[in-house]
Specification:
Elements lengths: L1 H27 L3 E2 L2 E2 L4 H8 L7 H7 L20 E5 L5 H12 L4 E2 L4 H4 L16 E3 L4 H4 L4 E6 L2 H14 L7 H4 L5 H24 L4 E5 H6 L1 H11 L6 H9 L19 H21 L6
Parallel strand pairs: 3-5, 3-6, 4-5, 6-7
Antiparallel strand pairs: 1-2
Helix pairs in contact: 4-12, 7-9, 9-13
Amino acid sequence: MSKIRLWILGFLLILYLAGVLLLSAVTLHEPKEGGKVFKSTSDHRQVSKSKNYEYGVSSYRSSKRFKIDWCASLQFREPPKPPIALASFPGSGNTWLRYLLQQATGVYTGSVYKDYGLLKSGFPAESISNGSVLVVKTHEWGANARKQFSKAVLLVRAPANAIQAEFNRQSGGHIGFASPDRYKKTRGKYWQQFVTDKLKMWKEMNLDWLYNFTGPTHIIFYEQLVDNVQHTLTVLLNFLEVPISDQLLACALERQEGIYRRKRRYMNFDPYTRKMKKLLQMEQKKVYEAIYNIASPARR
């Protein structure tokens, strides 16, 4: 009798374990994001292998909460013109400037990347890099990155702020922030190495476009854009050969903050050491002197 009970208990246990495994399999094959079920995992494999995919899932999650009220219905540029680069180091305000341009012109801006967060919340021409869009976002440099463009807008931001903005983006998406613990990871070595690597990239990227791009180049300092949006935007539109609509420009200025300009957050500690600041100032001076010696950036 006891053997029969043991057999029954064993059989029930096997059924229970089989049910658990079945439920686990169903859950694993139906990953959910934002309350919706993805119909296929092939998109995930494609994204993870794509060299052009710049932003992670965090920005996609945050972007789903926002809707942009555009000054005019967005459309492609007619007639198309040779593509124009909007080149910048990450964290320099590229997305915000694209937002301002789309508000002031009603024309799509494109990108050499495919950011799914931006694609679904205001930038439907992501991954389009031809002359049908007003400008094409790129953080790349080198001969291959430059060769497709006839003109270039080089957006430059002070390296300390740009690097910290990029650190925030990698941790919290387009408008989020890195937690204080992120700066202290591995006793601060992670942040220190991040600053060292990104500062080198900041210098190389800006000097490459400045020295080696042979087409007409218009340089904008991010700080200049913040101080005087109207003047900076008007001069840029003239460079892009876009007719200026007073109505659209006024609307763009009224809505200039948008959702893609990260709000300032005050921290109770300075992430940059004295040694870091000295190196940042030295490299910034080299790049800015090169800009003032070679180019003619728009004045206030």
